[in-house]
Amino acid sequence: MCLAIPARVVSVDGPLAKVEVGGVSKIASVHLLDGVKPGDYIVMHAGFALSRLDEAEARETLRLLEQMGELEPGTLG
Amino acid sequence: MKYISEFRNPELARRAAAEIAALTDGPVRIMEICGGHTYVIFKHGLTEILPPEITFIHGPGCPVCVTPLERVDLAIEMAREKNVILATFADMIRVPGSRSSLQQEQARGADVRMVYSSLDALEIARRHPEREVVFFAIGFETTAPTNAMAVLLAREQGLKNFSIFSNHVTVPPAVRAILDSPDVTLDAFIGPGHVSLVTGSHIYDFVAKEYGRPVVVAGFEPLDILQSIAMILRQRKEGRAEVETQYRRAVTWEGNRKAQAAIGTVLESCDMRWRGLGVIPGSGLGLRKAFSDYDAMARLGMAEPPSLSDPKACQCGDILRGAKKPADCKVFGTACTPETPIGACMVSSEGACAAHYHFGRHRREAV
Fold it and tell me: Is the ipTM of this complex over 0.90?
């Protein structure tokens, strides 16, 4: 139910944005999120943009993942 | 950056699994509160690559599953009213009430419409000014602002034939109820990422401060879950119990203030009964008095229904509290299947029973 998906904003017209999800065009309401602009990635739920995806944070998360697995079992005290 | 494929990288999953193995030094019981996480854990077979010491306890974060029987019955009663169009999300159409379902009512001639968004229900109201359009609204803090926004737009647009049957619930009171429950022991929580888009991560602070359990707010790709487990294990290793956000690309500590304001303008806290958890004080969101014109119960003259017990064979209640597993239920996979569900946990793909059923874990657990 709380399913939400990343969508790329193509254009914004007043309270509605044209977005793309995996190559499929959809309309998202931007009533609940200020400052949405073309090129942004948003998280969309039940037809509404609820959050903007932050590329720098996403890269940082991936960087932390890349650092994982360097430890061998039993090496931590 | 596509925000999906990057977080399904098998090499990074292997690294995360190795990190988790290195950090595991005993049994850990982790509740993933959100049904969306339950689905991801099963769909991607994450339990297969984790040490056996890590047990997932599936939480109550499936609004379809926790909506009590009497409220499904009341929606059915609303759909039976002459002149009513009842709009709701797909899973609510299939969920069984005590004697019928909205799907069965639809077959008998009731005008029940499936929608993806509250805005679709609003559009139906615009197109049918002569009909009474009721939106059977369910959901956690993720969905509540979208439904509240529909009410604000209905008022702004002067729509007089739109109302909602509010069954919104909120996460923190349910987590508290589970932590206070004597038959459920939990070591840590994976926090619901999409609820947190709206609320911010700060709402789980009491879990760390009052109950001493780590919470990591997670995204919905397999690497998100794996990284979150590693973060939980690291907190335990270092003797910390804090709220951390793994899903930082989307979630902040404060959340989406505009969405919070939409909830606060239209809805107010109320007591709500949950399937499996009983009445939890302050766990629901009902319409404020100022918006009573948009309250379906008031408009149709319907009173709060008396509570109903689940069918005897159904163990959804215990499963929703994390006290039992789907395979512990006698009708799981036999009389109760996704095609003919007896309990709500088998209806929604995010229900623990449906996830177990679809991804075959019941077979392994059964032997």
Answer: yes
